[in-house]
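step 3/5: co-fold with NAP
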Amino acid sequence: MSNDVYTLADLRQWHAQPPTWAEGEKPILAVFGDPVAHSLSPQMMNPALKAIGVAGRYVRLHILEDEFSEAVRLLPKLGFVGTNVTIPHKFNALQNVDEVDSLAQRLGAVNTVVVQEDQLLGFNSDGPGFLRSLTEAFHVDAKDLRILILGSGGGAGRAVAIQCALVKCERLVLVNRTAAKAQVVADEVRPLFQDDHLAGPMERLEAVAWEDDALAHQLDHTDLIINATSAGMKLTDPDLLSNGLIQPHHLIYDMVYKPARTKFIASAEAAGARATNGLSMLLHQGVISFETWFNRPAPIDVMREALQKAAAEAS
Ligand code: NAP
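step 4/5: write tokens
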């Protein structure tokens, strides 16, 4: 059994052939994913456990989609406190816990599971983690901003779109390569804006085509541009926005954090705009998950330093 990544087969034999762990090293928290080997969460969470004096370890669980339900149901018997859930399990997790908190229900995804006796409780720290990291990066509040999301039809883009709508941001413009998916999300969030009227020439909520003319018009009335696409992880990826579309007054939030200075961030800075990557979203969602498991403040400085070190080593 690898020290680092466990599988469903390992969980099944946890009791039959208990692995031997050094004192205080027994896994009590995990991240479920496929793939999961690249996850930086253990490097962030293990120093946090140590800092608050909790014996146990946070490990990676490489769980395939059709194994999720069995694997997550084993956690209470195996002494786990909870788990994080990442791609592709966030929707599956919603269906496989006993109780779902109202925000996770609204976002349609669970990324944090708490084990309470033999029950599994589902939460979502991605949306609130995004809001905290936005405020930390730019000293702004999403509710005061006109926001345009590139990739709003993907899992992360949809969650951030709903979260921004829940705080009633000033404007929300949804853009996606496959336009129909942005329209679906627009239809989903429209009721959240129903009773509010924006005094001004632009619609409060729009789904627009990923075309230069349409974007140029929208970007004149945008404060924050979020990249929630999976493009931009490679420096050879095409530019997300054509030259001249980013303006100096824009705030740019790239959810990608590897490389730390993405191509989108480089273009934004060249245009005189302020930009940040998504590493602090990973930090803040982790902090909120930690607080959900232990019902106490997380050692955020320890987590931030550990995460920054892990990200630097991984890039
Ligand atoms: P996903 O569900 O697979 O969605 C991918 C999105 O990217 C879709 O909207 C897709 O458009 C779009 N896309 C892919 N390639 C594109 C291209 N070449 N041009 C334009 N659009 C493209 O993935 P996800 O889970 O939402 O994750 C999206 C990104 O967010 C990833 O980079 C992920 O690492 C990042 N993320 C970061 C954090 C954080 O903590 N910082 C958290 C979650 C996710 P179509 O619909 O047209 O396919």
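step 5/5: annotate
The pocket of NAP is lined by residues 87, 151, 153-157, 176-178, 181, 228-231, 255-257, 278, 281-282, 285 (CB under 6 Å).
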